[in-house]
Predict the 3D structure of the following.
Amino acid sequence: MSFHVDMVTKRTYHGEESAKRLLLWLNQSKRRDKASHDRVSRLLLDLQAWERAYDEPGNWASTYSFLPPDEKPVQFDRRAEKQLREYLFSPQLRFTRAGWDLSWKLRHGKTSGFAMTQYLDGPGEPGQCRIPIKFGEPSAVMAIVRAAEQGFLDRIRGCRRCREWFYARFQHMVYCSENCQQMYVRSSSAWKKRKREKMRELRALHKRRLFK
Ligand SMILES: [Zn+2]
């Protein structure tokens, strides 16, 4: 098993591995099936807002979502509950070379949503044997439910700059990468102002040297 190797060479964070498939699905569906992506991401954001409201005593009495601003205030706990009631799933089990693969199938509903193929690592070296599995909207919803149950729901976030979904290893992380963090800082008005001032200083210095 590669477990020992992983422990030595790579730090793993609670929930990061199981969040991987959900993140892939969220980022793919965003480009390819907006309706499906919006349904699932709204459920995720509602549950996260619910969690935050509970964290702050005093806020609990009015668990209103303030976003998006053009919509009426909504009680996100009720909306999340209602949305979850609409999903009726059947578990689907399939035996593969990597063991049992569990996926979820919608029993009925308006749409089955976005589905993609993902891969499980089979026996042998990682990448040597890849087993295709189907990962659809029901599986994404179940991944969110499991993340809530296992306590890492708040780690699944959209990057403040590029909007890609990512797993936040630390509480304060709001960017998917160091690159996005730097790009965001550079595009902010404070940074541009500082840069303009710096250029002005340089030009003044240059002038003084020229006319000395
Ligand atoms: Zn980003």
Remarks:
- The longest strand covers residues 99-108.
- DSSP finds seven helices and eight strands in the chain.
- The pocket of zinc ion is lined by residues 159, 161-162, 164, 175-177, 180 (CB under 6 Å).
